[in-house]
């Protein structure tokens, strides 16, 4: 039985593919390679195409005995989603509906879905629990929340069981040093800080120093990408054993401010890393920290790479050896 990984050439998807292969799973990858990288896919049977295209989906499901799907195929930039909401609703919602229709046609009953902390919007409580209000403040979060709702009804009608994982800030790179983060353009904090350490940028711009936090900068919950992949694996095992549909947060439960992350990166890299203060970035909540108690209790998930030093160290190892990402 094979697992289909949609978006398997992206940052998180490629780490998932690596984890499944290490586990001895048969893996099929679908990616349109708009953002993903061919070199990031360390194995499996690879199809180039889009989840919005039923022809390629039918081909994949008819040529492989797929029993489960892990879906990472999405646009995921909060800022861009505000400017281009229809792009996000089309790719993230219509694309997943397409995928679910084909799963229904082929009787495939398990899906692990990549959701986001952005489904919560501006949190009322920290740490955020799964039952807290979900009031997204951008189309990206709205698109993921819409899919969570669609999944609920597909479970009731067709018996498709799902696990939706609401990630906080994915970071770090595989400890094998072969795969890591390579977004173009790069917008995420840790990669940009490390590009400064490498001398590829002059300074990191800190977006806002006037938040109601201990040092005035935003606080986030950084989770290692391999720990994320491990959580998907556990969720998949549970669904295959007949588990019901669930939603889980995925974070480390510990928040670090932008300034703290920069300071740790200075220690890890030994580089001065120049920082400049700028205006707030639109739509950034002050604090996002997860309660991951539910997934720890119910799936026995234990984050292995949970110190911020380790997360930055693995990312640094990737960037040092691949200063131009997958172009090297
Ligand atoms: N930041 C800076 N300077 C930069 C880049 C980021 O100060 O150059 C700050 C941001 O303002 C934010 C923090 O660093 O406070 C983290 O920013 P990222 O862009 O790395 O990550 P986000 O928290 O914005 O986004 C992440 C995921 C999204 C997801 C979101 C959930 O990348 O996909 O968490 O809230 F939707």
Automatic annotation (TrEMBL):
Gene Ontology molecular function terms on file: UDP-glucose 4-epimerase activity
Residue span, NAD-dependent epimerase/dehydratase domain: 3-251
Reaction equation(s) it catalyzes: UDP-alpha-D-glucose = UDP-alpha-D-galactose
One family name in Pfam for this protein: Epimerase
Keywords: Carbohydrate metabolism, Galactose metabolism, Isomerase, NAD
CDD domains cross-referenced by the UniProt entry: UDP_G4E_1_SDR_e (cd05247)
Cofactor: NAD(+)
Record-listed E.C. numbers: 5.1.3.2
The protein's annotated pathway: Carbohydrate metabolism; galactose metabolism
Keyword NAD in annotation: yes
Stored PANTHER family: UDP-ARABINOSE 4-EPIMERASE 1, UDP-GLUCOSE 4-EPIMERASE
Subunit structure of this chain's protein: Homodimer.
Family, per entry: Belongs to the NAD(P)-dependent epimerase/dehydratase family.
NCBIfam families according to UniProt: galE
UniProt protein name: UDP-glucose 4-epimerase
Record organism: Clostridium mobile
């Amino acid at each position: 039985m094979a697992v289909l990984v949609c978006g398997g050439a992206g940052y998180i998807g490629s780490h998932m593919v690596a984890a499944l292969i290490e586990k001895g799973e048969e893996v099929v990858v679908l990616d349109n390679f708009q953002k993903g990288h061919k070199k990031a896919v360390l194995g499996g049977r690879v199809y180039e195409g889009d989840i919005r295209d039923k022809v390629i989906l039918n081909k994949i499901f008819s040529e492989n005995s797929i029993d489960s799907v892990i879906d990472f195929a999405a646009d995921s930039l909060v800022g861009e989603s505000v400017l281009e909401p229809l792009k996000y609703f089309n790719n993230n919602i219509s694309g997943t509906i397409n995928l679910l229709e084909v799963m229904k046609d082929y009787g495939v009953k398990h899906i692990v879905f990549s959701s986001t902390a952005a489904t919560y919007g501006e949190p009322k409580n920290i740490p955020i629990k799964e039952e807290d209000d979900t009031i997204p403040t951008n189309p990206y979060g709205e698109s993921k929340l819409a899919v969570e709702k669609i999944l609920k009804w597909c479970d009731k009608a067709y018996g498709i069981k799902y696990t939706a994982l609401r990630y906080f800030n994915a970071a770090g790179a595989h400890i094998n040093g072969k795969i890591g983060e390579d977004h173009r353009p790069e917008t995420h904090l840790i990669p940009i800080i490390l590009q400064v350490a490498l001398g590829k940028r002059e300074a990191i711009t800190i977006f806002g120093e006037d938040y109601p936090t201990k040092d005035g900068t935003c606080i986030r919950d950084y989770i290692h990408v391999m720990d994320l992949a491990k959580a998907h694996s556990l969720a998949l095992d549970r669904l295959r054993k007949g588990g019901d549909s669930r939603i889980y947060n995925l974070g480390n439960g510990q928040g670090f401010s932008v300034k703290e992350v920069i300071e740790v990166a200075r220690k890890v890299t030994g580089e001065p890393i120049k920082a400049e203060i700028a205006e707030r970035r639109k739509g950034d909540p002050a604090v996002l920290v997860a309660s991951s108690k539910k997934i720890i209790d119910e799936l026995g998930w234990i984050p292995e790479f949970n110190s911020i030093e380790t997360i930055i160290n693995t990312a640094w190892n990737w960037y040092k050896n691949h200063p131009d990402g997958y172009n090297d």
